[in-house]
Fold this protein.
Amino acid sequence: MLNHRNILDKFTENEVYQLASELIKIPSYTGLAEQEKQIATFIYNFFKNENIQVEFQEPLENRPNVIATLKGNGNGRSLMLTGHMDTVPPYNMINSPLSGDISNGRLYGRGACDMKGALACMIGAVTAIKRSGIALDGDLVFAGVINEEQKSEGTEYIVTNGPHTDAAIVGEPSGLQIAAGHRGLEWIEIDIIGKTTHGGTPHEGINAISKAAKLITRIENDLVPKFKERRHPLIGDPLLNFGVIEGGDQPSSVAGRCKIFIDRRWTPLESFDLIMNELQALISDLKKEDKDFNAQAKRYFADSNMMLHKPLEINLDHPVIKSLKKGISSSIGKDPEIISFLAWTDASLLSNYAQIPSVVFGPGNLKNAHSEDEFVELTQLRSAYESYVLTAIDFCNGDVKND
Ligand SMILES: [Zn+2]
């Protein structure tokens, strides 16, 4: 029987907080040149100093992923602890975004919650196990990835090139609850085509703004009410948001063009093909009723080869869920809740495209992510760190035959 306290103490809670603070001090926000290179190098050197096997991948030029591995003896399951190293920009933060200040039981700065806090907990977990000298049966992998806040090229690279593990934990801020699923997310662009004329002769033109209004009304009346029938027991109803509308040139011209941008979030009970087909069907119906109606819908990122952002779902009986439950409850003293995460995450890519069963579990609350006073509570960092250590040992050393 392993003495877990002994292993946990190999990386102290103060080391977790200090490491998280150091990571916040290294800017890695969207828009910086070589955005994640400095933080990736810091993490690489950290593992090197601990004599842990570590390497770079290069999904984008000068923007590396960092992969560290504790090799198991080959008899157990392998686990990936992963998180993104990029953050959103500081925007209007009230506190200094790069301070990494620790006060009143909280760690402050851009990325504290999303998700440098989790990265520190994961790096600490790998280091503690290495320092303890215990042998794991399966490999334990840490993956720090790039550009999740934009196009997720970091995780797409892992999907295509490995490492491939038996399960993955993505450390997005789930408030120490187990997020066993989330909605898929794609943006859809609808181009409504009319005909421009002078505002004094509107009957000569076709007003694309008026036609867009017709389409919006049809979507709200005929499509959105169907969402309730597609309610997923964990993930909930599908969602649709009209996020942007733009069209026309000036008030005295009949608008010849109008565009609508939709945010569509779907559950495993739908598919992206279904979503596009039902939008096309509404457009076809409107065309039949109105010979002047003309519109085209497409995926916003149709011209890139970005993987689809599908929903995440994991079987609640999966061994990684069992190990996580045990690990979290021995750290926080009660059973964690099983929830659906309210944002899309890289766990979707690992799960849908690499067939790595994945779950979201991390410190901090999503409402603090991207916020003006981003912070994470130190107690959550400590519990997440402990949970990662205990989960990794239980999962990688678990009895594979009894799964
Ligand atoms: Zn995030």
